[in-house]
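[job 0412] stage=fold_complex status=start
inputs:
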Amino acid sequence: MESESIYDRPPGMRQRFSRALENPTVLGLLFVAPAELLLLVFLAYPFVLGIWLGFTDTIVGRQGHYIGWQNYIDLVNDTQFWLTAFNTFFYTVIAVILKAVLGIGLAVVLNRDFKAKGLVRAIVLLPWIIPTALSALCFWWLYDATFSGISWALVRLGIIDHYINFLGDPWNARWSLIAANVWRGVPFFTIGLLAGLQTISPDLYEAADIDGAGSWKKFRRITLPLLTPLLTVVTVFSTIWTFADFQLVWIITKGGPAGATHIFGTLSYERAMQGGHFGMGAAISNFMLPVLVICVLIAFMFLKKED
Amino acid sequence: MAEVRLENVCKHYDKVVAVDNFNLSIQDKEFVVLVGPSGCGKTTTLRMIAGLETITSGRIFIGDRLINDLPAKERNIAMVFQNYALYPHMTVRDNIAFSLEMRKRPKEEIEQRVREAADILGIEHLLDRKPKQLSGGQRQRVAVGRAIVRKPEVFLFDEPLSNLDAKLRVQTRLELKKLHERLATTAVYVTHDQVEAMTMGDRIVVMKDGLIQQVGSPMELYNTPANRFVAGFIGSPAMNFFEAELAGGTDGLCLQSGEVRLDLLPEQCRRLERYGRKRILVGIRPEDFRPCERHEQGQTISGEVEVVEPVGNETYVNFRAGELNLIAAVGRKTIVQAHTRMVLQPAMEHLHLFDIDSGKSISK
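[job 0412] stage=fold_complex status=done
writing structure:
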């Protein structure tokens, strides 16, 4: 028979393929495959490698051997490590709290109706979009022992009579870093929360006005509860970024003076890249893992609840 | 006891006049409805009474208190918003209790008053739910509950039924009216729906472009509209309007519009002779037409039926007489065929006559 109907033929490759695409699971997997591949190569592989390195004595130019928990045991007996751990938590907790408080305040102010609010909102975003390395360099300059613009201005105003030793004193240096981090991180809170504020119906505030609520009560009883889910997510993200910070600290203090402002990121870099101890550096990084995992879980829970 | 008085109240937004020289005295326990098309200033007026909008000029009193500069919370009013404005994160109980909490009432009193309000509205079983878990009608009740729990001097309603479906709207309308009788509190109610206004208001204030057009009881507005706008706004289907020439009739005057001629009643003739002008605007309500057997020039209008709209209790007949397109509401028992000729007799004693330029009524 010459002309065979296509219905009689067994399904060809093409037909079978297009039928498979009808299946949402297959199609979904195909869609995410490119992204998954990138994540696998550039995130999952380095991540697993990092964990593995933490259990080895790898140094520059030499393949390491498995040494079990030795790196971690060394770290636990290392005072520099404990100072770094303290710094990291201090830096994170204080900076995130300040960013959250300032961010909410700024968001509430910017949510009001005023002239050129679009422009002002764009300006508020600036610290966030300037490359961190650049703004860190500016802060480094502002905190410089001799060329500090802040000291210069304060002396000129007659508030102080000698330049502040911003980065030479451990506590000054810690607070200076927190200030720089807050400056950089507030816009993220502000813009995120501003978006949340705009979803709150103005009617609710009018109803509250009539119900007899003052400004503070309206904030406490309406704004804050309605903003809480978003605030949690934004805070968790900011915590992750602050906890795993590197650029700001590395550029402004390099962990100094005398290791007093190291956080996990900078200490790890110093030991691994400058000292050549990859294994030790990886072990330090791995200490961040539990905290970050908890943060991610909290974020995940809230995002899921929001759905 | 609260009478609400508005004296020469104006509201300007930059150069736009939203409310112009509003004067109204609302009696204690009265239910006043502000009605008008969107943008007429009715909601703005309500919001000025509520204290959500500043007053450009004029004075507003609640009782003897001048409230112009009093913040909303000190005016002792309660408001039901168009979209209810329920606090989404609070339970129904907390929503209703909120205003009492803000006023630092004791816990037992709050609980008791919330129960009372919930009982009146039949929403006790919903007290622990969040607004999201309620239907539109239930939300509306909660919004009302939030208003009545405080026992305010004045209730303000901003189109509270516009988000409900037609059936529920009719039902809730009735309930609100009953509630008002029971609570005996002054109420100001804003709506764009003339049926709602007619059925609920002790008195109705018709507004347009920021100006009061007429204030009166529902039947006053229906029977003696002050101008063309009120005449067209109140009543459904809307009144028929056409321009007509005054001419000498068989005895006295008649209205002539194209081939349609209607002899005026002697009383109307006397008034129009004094009025002096030759062209006037005539208004006939659809329900004031009566079908007739025989056409008689001067008494009836003969025309061709174009569309017949039966609505059950009556039938709307769209018909054409010369240049005029008119609508008549005839009883359901009248059988009308489209594209046939029909003779209708208007009730001349219910004819409405208006000045063409100003639109003001010259019937009385």
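[job 0412] summary: Residues 95 and 196 of chain B are 27 Å apart (CA to CA).
[job 0412] exit 0
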